[in-house]
């Protein structure tokens, strides 16, 4: 039996994670969560989003954060779990593993 060795291309990981299409998709998902969360606020805002690239020593992962910025949003999020609900509501449903007819 032969041994398989895998060599990671870390500069390639960094390049992939900083690709404009990847960033655009992450920010699109963040904005969807942000819009959902802000719709729960009476004045229409209270949550914010930030987008930035992490340090290169961590392979340059891109981060998109949605957070409660106002005191009212912080209280509302703690009481109603607004951000968790927003995350759940904006995700695509996972297709069933088995066909509804019972066939794999």
What does this protein structure show overall?
The chain is an alpha+beta fold and 104 residues long. Strand 1 (47-53) and strand 2 form a beta hairpin. The protein has four helices and two strands; from the N terminus they run H-H-E-E-H-H. Strands 1-2 form a two-stranded antiparallel ribbon. Helices cover 45% and strands 13% of the residues. The chain is extended and about 60 Å long. The longest helix is centred in the first third of the chain and has 20 residues, at 20-39. The protein has one domain. It starts with 9 loop residues before the first helix and ends in a 14-residue tail after the last helix. It has helices at 10-17, 20-39, 71-80, 82-90; strands at 47-53, 62-68.
Topology record:
Blueprint: H1 10-17, H2 20-39, E1 47-53, E2 62-68, H3 71-80, H4 82-90
For this entry, give a set of tags.
4 helices; alpha+beta; 104 residues
Provide the residue-averaged pLDDT. Answer: 87
- Nearest-angstrom radius of gyration? 19 Å
Shape: extended
Strand order of the largest sheet: 1-2
Order of helices and strands, N to C?
HHEEHH
Count up the domains: 1
What is the first-to-last residue Cα distance?
32 Å
The number of helical runs is 4
Find the count of extended strands (DSSP E, 2+ residues).
2
Main beta-sheet strand count, sense and barrel state? 2 strands, antiparallel
Structure at a glance:
The protein has 4 helices and 2 strands; from the N terminus they run ααββαα.
């Amino acid at each position: 039996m032969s041994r398989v060795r895998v060599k990671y291309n870390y500069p390639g990981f960094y390049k992939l994670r900083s690709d404009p299409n990847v960033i655009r998709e992450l920010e699109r998902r963040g904005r969807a969560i942000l819009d959902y969360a802000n719709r729960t606020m009476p004045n229409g805002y209270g949550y914010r989003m930030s987008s930035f690239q992490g340090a290169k020593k961590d392979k340059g992962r891109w981060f998109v954060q949605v957070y409660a910025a106002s005191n009212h949003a912080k209280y509302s999020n703690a009481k109603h779990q607004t951000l968790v609900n927003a995350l759940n509501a904006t995700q695509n449903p996972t297709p069933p593993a088995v066909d509804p007819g019972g066939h794999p």
